[in-house]
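Hi support team,

I'm filing this because I wasn't sure whether my run with succinic acid finished correctly. The job status page said complete, but I'd like someone to confirm that the output block is well-formed before I use it downstream. Pasting the exact inputs I used:
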Amino acid sequence: MSQLTARQLGFALGAEVTGIDLSKPLNDLKRREILDAWHKHLVLVFPGQDLSAEEQIAFSRNFGALEDNESLPYYRDPAHKEILLVTNKQIGGKPSETRNTGRNWHADLTYTTRPAKGSLLLCKEKPAVGGDTMWANLYLAYETLSAPLRDFLDRLEAIHDFSLVKGVEQRDPEKVAELKRRNPPVAHAVVKAHPETGRKSLFLGQRIRGFVGMTEEESAPILAFLNQHATSPEFVYRHRWSVKDLVMWDNRCTLHVALPDFDQTKTRHMTRTSLLGEVTGRVLEEGAAPQKEALLQTIASVS
Ligand code: SIN
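And here is everything the job wrote out:
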């Protein structure tokens, strides 16, 4: 039997895993080895995996129940609700609505109360050059902040908002209105302890409106600093895809971004499964965010 090998790809995260055929059932030992490598490297690249939709689903299920993509129903593979099509291939004679998926730093489905635990993305077709994806290590982002800032962030929640998905305004307005209705803004803790490793990480990204209880003016510079810090080059791995790469990432301690660094007339076709996460967020009441004007009014009324 071949030996599973994990070769580190990046300083901060990422490893290439070889010696395994993902179309075959996994035994407990191999599953454990993959999980250990996943917890250590956060992003695993399995090259040369020529998987059907059913095989991708079956492999993904080794690591938990799968998302049925109910928050994004229009972009599913019609034959497999567990598969989200991230593609610029035409669908029904129209440009695909997922052709610009993931163009800002994010973790998957954080605009729901149940962000994905992880995702598995299989490259089916790609342009000769580019179409890369980058991931950032959010453990390191947290651990390299000063103690007073970590203390402050430990008590904070952020407002994750579907309408901040980059490029959403270029999609069908009716579908987008329905997606916003299905996905109202939700609050998540800014710092989370990983349920399996126990290690704390930031939980941020560029789909955040601000922090709960703070005005947008207060939130914006802190958020900008934290996102810039979290995605600085020393925390990032950039993957240059090959067809048949399957990449499996931990969504609880990483961010990722899909780069538009390719000729958009060339096909980039990927299939994604996501592992159902824990419920960690709560839907926010409308108008919950304080406004600077209202706070000024409070001062005026007491002075
Ligand atoms: C995603 O954001 O999940 C898709 C990433 C990619 O297409 O590279």
